[in-house]
Amino acid sequence: MHLVYLHGFASGPNSTKGSFLKRRLAEFGYDLHQPDLNAPAFEAMTISSQLAVIARTLEGLTGPVTLLGSSMGGLLAVLQATRDPRIERLVLMAPAFGFARRWQERLGAAAVAEWRRSGKLAVYHYAYRRECRLGFEMLTDALGYDEVQPRRPVPTLILHGRRDEVVDFELSRAFAASRPNVALRPYDTDHAMIDVLEPMWQEIRGFLKLERQGGYPAVRSS
Predict the structure, then answer these.
(1) pLDDT over threshold 80, residue 147
(2) Is residue 213 in a domain?
(3) Is residue 53 one of the residues assigned to a domain?
(4) What is the CATH number of the domain that holds 160?
(5) What is the pTM of this model?
(6) Residue 171's domain spans which residues?
(7) Is the peptide bond before 40 cis (omega within 30 degrees of 0)?
(8) What local confidence, expressed as pLDDT, does residue 150 receive?
(9) Residue 55's pLDDT is what?
(10) What percent of the chain has pLDDT over 70?
(11) Is position 220 within any domain?
(12) Mean pLDDT for the stretch of residues 118-138
C-alpha cells in the first residue's frame, strides 16, 4: 500500500501534520510520499496544476494507494480518487469542500473584482514564511471542479474540528451524511487540528488497519 500526503493551501509537504504523520508511519515501518503541490510555483498554482503534481507522484506505483489530505489536500484527494482506480482509501483532515464558493464569499465581490483586474492576490504562505501573489487563475480554475460528486464509493475517513474557522464543519457533515462509505470523526478543535494529532493518529491507524512490523510492506519514497 502506497501512502501519499497532500498538504493544504499556502503550506508545504513538511507541515506540522505531514511531519507528524511521517514520523508515526515510520515507527510502523511505512514510508510516506509527500509531494510539493506548490510546484512549479505557488503564484501560478491552480487545482489543475496540483492534480498534475499528484498524477506525476503516482506514476509507476503499483498496488493500492491511500491519500491523506489536509484542507485543500483533502479536496484534491477526493478529486484524484475520481480519476485513479488505484486509490483504495481516503483520509481527509478538515477537507476544503466548496473552495471556490467559500473564497468568493470570504473575499467579497469588491476584492474578487480587484483580484480579477490586477491578476494577483496577496496571500501569506506559511511554508515560505512570506507573502506571495497568487494568480486569478486559481479561482477560475477551481470553479470548474465539482468536488462533491465522487464516481466511486471509496472508503473514506474524515477528521474535522467543530470549531473550524476556515472550513465549516457542517460541510463535512453534509458530505458524510449521504455516503455510507464515509466515516466522520469530529473533534473539539480548530482548522489546524494541531492539538488533536495523537487522537487523529489512532483513528487513522485503525482505519488503515496498520500494525507495527506487519500488514503491508513499507514503501520507499520516490
Answers:
(1) no
(2) no
(3) yes
(4) 3.40.50.1820
(5) 0.93
(6) 2-208
(7) yes
(8) 62
(9) 96
(10) 93
(11) no
(12) 97
Residue type, 87: I
Question: Residue 178's pLDDT band (boundaries 50, 70, 90)?
Answer: confident
Q: Which three cell numbers stand for residue 169?
A: 464543519
Q: Which residue in 36, 6, 35 sits closest to 128, CA to CA? A: 36
Q: How far apart are CA 47 and CA 56, in angstroms?
A: 14
Residue in the block written with cell 514510508: 31
Residue-by-residue DSSP string for 10-62: T--TTSHHHHHHHHHHHHTT---B---TT-S-GGG--HHHHHHHHHHHHTT--
Number of structural domains (the chain) is: 1
Return the C-alpha cell found at 105: 464569499
Query: Looking at the domain assignment, is residue 169 inside a domain?
Result: yes
- Show the beta-strand stretches assigned E in 154-210: 156-161, 182-187
8 Å CB contact between 100 and 142: yes
- The C-alpha atoms of residue 77 and residue 192 are separated, in whole angstroms, by 18
**Helix-helix angle 109-118:99-107, to 10 degrees:** 100
∠ Cα 126 140 76 (to 5°):
55
Closest CA to 78 of 139, 147, 18: 147
pLDDT of residue 219: 38
pLDDT recorded at residue 221: 35
> What whole-number distance in Å separates Cα of residue 36 and Cα of residue 40?
9
Q: In which element (H, E) is residue 176 found?
A: helix 169-177
